[in-house]
Known about the structure:
This protein has helices at residues 10-14, 19-48, 61-77, 84-95, 98-101, 112-126, 135-145, 148-159, 181-185, 201-215, 221-234, 248-267, 273-296, 298-323, 329-355.
Amino acid sequence: MTILLLGRSDKEVSMPANSQKNVAGRTRRYCTISIAAVLYIALGVYLYEPYFKYFSPQRCLVVAGSICGALGCFVLSRRWISAFGALLFAGAIYGFSPFALGFAAYHPSAVLPLAILPWLFWPAAFWSVKKNKTFLTAVISAALSLLPFVIIPLFFWLCAQPPLGPLFPLPLHIKLHFADVLGLIAPQATKPHEFAFGFYHVPLIVGLMGLFMYLTVHRIKVMILIAAGLVLAFAGPVLQTPPIVWALVPMLSFSVLIGLGTQGLALAGPADRKWILFCLAAAAALAILTILAAVKLPDAFGISAKMYGLACVLTGSIFFIAKAGCRWRLLRWVLLCAGLGIDILLGARFIVDKIF
């Protein structure tokens, strides 16, 4: 798969550079992070501005949590993604996904796990970059990967103790059910105070491309973390931690895959046509499914049908560009930014309006 070159290998990240290049690299890195932070703040203001007049100072934590989580995903994704646009969408989709916005319906402190989770995975992702691949390095990296599974239960346990509470940011019984798969296909169809376990429509299709890219390199560690998060999300509460919180782990992982898929579609060549065709087929199937559902329930599935139609146009255009052997990178980025941006802006505003 030719587009696998797009991710940064450990060797590329650890290549020595002179002092001047290091300074230039750090400056560029800090500038991109600063620009991303400004854009995430602008997105948060756009979504919540109509309701600021009703917000208490404590309620503003809801907006800050989404922004902090989005920026954390942006920084974490730099381990595998190099294109700024792909990084930007990975962060926006994590911090402002239908699932993430669902935390706004509860106590403001409920957004803390959303905000800190990407930062807790940062040590595990970057600690071993400049290290030799030894057994000890692998053990330490695996131990660092468990950090979120220690800090987050500790937060909820402390909230339940008399010095801080008892405070329950989320109802203890909330967990995932198999019926929640509807949120993966049509997040706008869920009820206002239900967690929609899913993403927006165009990002979901783009994420399939990232998943295909990731599976071809046969990396297991991240898949184990995703599986652990899903098992805990379906199980009962542990140490006063609501099971639904653990769904943030697969959400974060798939947000990174969406960023990876965005970069992959922007740079895919003729050899990658089959992967793009799979994405197009998935978009077409979901478009047909939601159109049929919209006939009976237009308010619940009408937006989803339109967005999957947009995903068909987007992936179909990139498929024919790649098939023709044309690079046309600027056109691809325009198509991707337009498709992803429209879906996120309209979908997030719809969900926030429904909650408040």
